[in-house]
Structures are given as C-alpha cells and as structure tokens.
C-alpha cells in the first residue's frame, strides 16, 4: 500500500516540476499528507536506495526523487489559511476563467 502511495506522490512531484499541476492545489489539499508520509517513509527510501547502490544499479538516488522534491516543495510552501479554503478559492478562480 505504501509503495503505491509513494509512486503516486512520485508522479505528482513530476507533474509539479513540469508545471502540469499547481503547487497551491497540491499544498492546500495534500501537503500535510505528503509531509507526513515522506517523513515516515524516508528510512525505507534510504534503505531501498542503499540496496540499489549495492546492486550497482544506475542512479540509485533517483528512486523516489520526485517524491522527495514534492516533500520539499510542500514543506516550503504551506497553504494560506485552512487547506480547503485555498482549494475552494482556486476552484472559484478557475470557474471565472472558464
């Protein structure tokens, strides 16, 4: 279960880096969960990276790299006010654009 969650966050981090997803939506809706998950899972990520390093796999530190970037971004960009208020505001703004 945690592996699937980490891979979801890894993809979300890639979308964020490539400007497909807005940080305000991610931070406002999932930021706390991303931070909590990463801080709990980081020892396992380190162990997997070390395992890959010992197996001489290419780029062992890239495993869950986007998840780590997502964590750093969420940690440094907390939502303003209540998370759901930030998301609701963005939805209202996008409705005005449509």
Structural class, by secondary structure, is: mainly alpha
Mean of all residue-level pLDDT scores: 83
> Low-confidence segments, ≥5 residues, pLDDT <50?
none
Largest sheet: none
Distance from N terminus to C terminus (CA atoms, Å) equals 37 Å
Number of helices: 4
Number of domains: 1
Helix content range of the residues, please?
over 70%
> What kind of assembly state do the chains in view correspond to?
single chain
Task: Specify the overall morphology.
Answer: elongated
Rg, Cα atoms, Å? 15 Å
Query: Beta fraction of the residues?
Result: under 5%
Total strand count, please?
0
Molecular structure report:
It is built from four helices and no strands. With 98 residues, the protein is mainly α. The chain has one domain. Helix 2 packs antiparallel against helix 3. The longest helix is centred in the middle third of the chain and has 32 residues. The N and C termini lie far apart (37 Å).
């Amino acid at each position: 279960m945690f592996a699937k969650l980490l891979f979801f966050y890894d993809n979300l981090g890639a979308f964020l880096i490539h400007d497909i997803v807005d940080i305000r939506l991610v931070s406002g809706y999932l930021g706390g969960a991303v931070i909590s998950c990463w801080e709990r899972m980081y020892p396992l990520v380190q162990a997997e990276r070390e395992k890959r390093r010992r197996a001489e796999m290419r780029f062992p530190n890239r495993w869950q790299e986007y998840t780590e970037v997502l964590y750093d971004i969420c940690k440094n960009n907390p939502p303003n006010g209540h998370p759901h208020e930030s998301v609701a505001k963005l939805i209202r703004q996008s409705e005005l654009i449509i």
